[in-house]
Design goal:
single chain; mainly alpha; 3 domains; 17 helices; about 0% strand; membrane; DUF4153 domain-containing protein; transmembrane; Perm_prefix_1; transmembrane helix
Length: about 450
């Protein structure tokens, strides 16, 4: 990397940091950046190198929190405008906001129509469950691809594996309710989410920054979708209660029409809200991670004690191992969201130490679970479920282990936070690859049983 490239990278990181200040608009950031570049140019002319000129220029700009407060006083209307339903048009958007809202509503309705048609088309309930993600994901990917004006290569990169996955899920002669069918149902959404990620990053799929943006998008999508589900659930519950009191049974309409349209449609709407209201959620994200990290550590310690004191590892209940896998995946999600929400330029702090404790505790739990799984395999033999769970735990062991090592280096001043970020984004596709193996290879390998 040349000196000019290093300087541009520093300015890009600074710009991202400033842009996260909710009250500073994109135009204000451009103005600050022009001022910063002018300062850097003047300082370089005095003989300072790029790093020295950049640091001095940043100092001359002043404390960014103070800048944010000053902008808040001068532009206080922006605070409530960011919460308006349809924001003002921005020059970089591919279409006016009202048109984007129309596209979102159309795709949300389309997702509902697809699910409703699937309910009528598939007689077998498990066949519907196998295909429900295939029915919904294209509409979400279509919105993200339209939003970013995806090219033909991106569309082809999404469409080809999507078709392959759809063929596999519907052509394979699964034994009804067999292990490989259940595993395919559980892991197909992981592969599909990788395709959603391609629609999100488009041609920038090699960029670590864009991959981390998708991680952040995933966390914020979960927050908005949960809020929509809670609000919608309360509304539907109150409506159903009133109708029942006047002698009308709302269940057929709710189960047959409201839920098939609302559940998938809300996913597209939640994605639009994430795109439109990123600054609002980014203010909440650090608070959420600070609250849930210590709570999750306490939960993992309690689980670890319970596993160790429960007796022989062979007697560990199979359902308990499955539940523990779900907890470790939740820990991984919290780790990723914490990293994506953290200011990369901030020095190490208490939250970073808590994050290291979280990862270390999760590693200990994963090690105990791996021991239990290997003991059960040695005692009772292999099965599709055991091999799938063993593979996932090995992937988690590597992911968490390297994350702990890089976190420790960062906290000791021997590494950078960007190294920890890059490890996350470059390792994540491994999970999708393993999920694809489970969906495509496991069924014929285990005779579709």
């Amino acid at each position: 990397m040349t000196h000019d490239d290093e300087l541009e990278a520093q300015i890009d990181r600074w710009r991202g940091y400033v842009h996260r200040r909710q009250v500073i608009s994109a135009a204000d950031v451009d103005e600050l950046e022009d001022h910063l570049r002018g300062q850097v140019t003047d300082l370089r002319a005095t003989g300072l190198d790029d790093d020295e000129a950049f640091l001095v220029a940043i100092k001359r700009l002043g404390n960014l929190d103070a800048v944010s407060r000053e902008y808040a006083r001068e532009h206080s209307d922006r605070l409530w405008k960011q919460l308006a339903l349809v924001p003002d048009d921005s020059p970089g958007s591919p279409a006016p906001r009202w048109r984007e809202l129309a596209v979102v509503i159309g795709l949300a309705v389309g997702a509902g129509v697809a699910v409703r048609a699937g309910i009528a088309w598939f007689d077998d309930e498990l066949a519907l469950v196998r295909n429900v993600a295939l029915l919904v994901v294209p509409f979400l990917a279509a919105y993200l691809g339209w939003k970013r004006q995806a090219g033909l290569r991106t569309v082809a990169a999404i469409a080809v594996p999507f078709v392959v996955l759809a063929v596999v899920l519907n052509v394979y002669p699964f034994v009804p309710e067999g292990s490989t069918e259940v595993l395919a149902i559980l892991h197909a959404p992981v592969v599909l989410w990788l395709l959603v990620g391609l629609a999100y990053v488009t041609a920038s799929w090699r960029s670590d920054a864009r991959r981390m943006d998708f991680v952040r998008f995933t966390g914020e999508l979960a927050i908005y979708y949960t809020l929509l589900a809670l609000g919608g659930g309360v509304l539907v519950g109150l409506t159903a209660g009133v109708l029942q009191l006047v002698g009308v049974d709302p269940e057929p309409v709710i189960t047959g029409w409201v839920l098939p349209f609302a559940v998938p449609g809300a996913l597209v709407v939640a994605a639009w809200l994430v795109e439109a209201k990123q600054d609002v959620v980014e203010n909440i994200a650090p608070v959420l991670t600070r609250i849930f990290t210590p709570l999750t550590i306490a939960m993992l310690l309690a689980v670890l004690v319970a596993l160790i004191t429960s007796g022989g590892l062979v007697q560990v209940d199979r359902e308990l191992l499955i539940l523990m896998d779900a907890i470790l995946v939740l820990v991984l999600a919290l780790l990723l969201y914490s990293i994506s929400a953290r200011d990369p330029l901030a020095p190490p702090g208490l939250t970073d130490w808590l994050q290291l404790v979280l990862v270390g505790t999760a590693l200990a739990v994963d090690a105990v679970m791996l021991t239990a799984m290997l003991t059960r395999i040695a005692q009772f033999g292999t099965s599709p479920n055991k091999i799938a769970a063993l593979g996932l735990n090995l992937l988690l062991l590597v992911h968490l282990g390297v994350s702990a090592w890089r976190s420790a280096r960062f906290l000791r001043g021997h590494g950078t936070f960007s190294e920890l970020e890059r490890w996350q984004t470059r390792y994540l596709p491994v999970y999708a690859a393993w999920a694809a193996v489970i969906v495509i290879v496991f069924p014929p390998l285990f005779a579709f049983a």
